Amino acid sequence: MEKLKRVVNEIAYTRSPSKLSPLHRSLIPFLSFASSLYKFALSLRRSLYHLGFFATHRLSVPVISVGNLTWGGNGKTPMVEFIALRLADSGVSPLIISRGYQGGDEAILSKDMAMLIAEKNSWIEKPFLDGKVQSHFDSEKIGVVVLDDAMQYQWRIWRDLEIVMVNGLTLWGNRQLMPLGPLREPLVALRRADIVVVHQADLVWFQNIFSMISSQ
C-alpha cells in the first residue's frame, strides 16, 4: 500500500510525464477514471448545497476556516494553532472544530467538549479543543470558531473568513483532481478564499537554485 501511495504521489507531482515508468503509465487510466468519479461527486455535492437540499448554518460567533486545495503538508494545523493562540492571547476564547484524523499532526489532541456551541448547535459533530489552547479556553464564552481542514468538508457552517494554505514547494502538481493529481478541488475554488498563505515560501528560492544547479 505504501508503495502504491508513493507511485500515485509521483504521478501527481511529476514535472516530466514523458519520463514516467511503465508502472506509472499503466496506472494513469484507472486514476483518471477515479478522478472523473471524484469530480462528479464533488460537483453533485456542491449543487445540492446551492439548490438548498443541504443547509448552511451561521453561528452566533465569527467563523474562520483554514483549508487547502491539495493533499499533503500545507501547514493547515500549524496555522490553526497560530490563529487560536493569538486569539487566546488577545482575550478571545477560540473553539477548534477538526475533522479528527486518526493519527498524524492533524489528530485531535484533547477530548474536552465545548458544551456551549454543542448545545446551541446540536447539528455540529462534537467539537474538541486543541490541547495547546485548552488552558486559555473559557467554556462560558466562545468568541471565535476556527475550522481545521474545512474547505471541502465542513460546508454546513458559514465562514466569515476563508484561509487557504498553499505549499510553495509543490504548488498544484499536475493540476489534476485526486487521485490522478493532488487537487482536492479545481483551482477555480481559490476564488472563495479571502486569504491565501504560501507555506514554506522561504524555501522556494533555495529549491529554484538547486534545480538550476542540478540541470547544469
Mind explaining what this structure looks like?
The protein has 216 residues and is α/β, with parallel strands linked by helices. It has one domain (1-216). Helix content is 37%, strand content 13%. It contains 6 helices and 5 strands. It has helices at 2-13, 22-50, 76-89, 115-120, 131-134, 201-215, and strands at residues 63-68, 94-98, 144-148, 161-167, 195-199. The chain has a 5-stranded parallel sheet, with helices on one face. Helix 1 (2-13) packs across helix 2. It starts with a helix and ends with a helix. Mean pLDDT is 78; it is low at 101-139.
* Percentage beta strand: 5-15%
Strands, total number: 5
Strand order of the largest sheet: 2-3-1-4-5
How many domain regions?
1
Quaternary assembly: single chain
Spell out the helices and strands N to C.
HHEHEHHEEEH
Instruction: State Rg.
Output: 19 Å
Query: How confident is the prediction overall: mean pLDDT?
Result: 78
Give the structural class: alpha/beta
Q: Could you tell me how far the N terminus lies from the C terminus, measured between alpha carbons in angstroms?
A: 36 Å
Q: What's the story with the biggest beta sheet?
A: 5 strands, parallel
Helix content: 25-40%
Taken from the alpha-carbon principal axes, the silhouette is globular
Q: What ranges have pLDDT less than 50 throughout 5 or more consecutive residues?
A: 101-139
Number of helical regions: 6
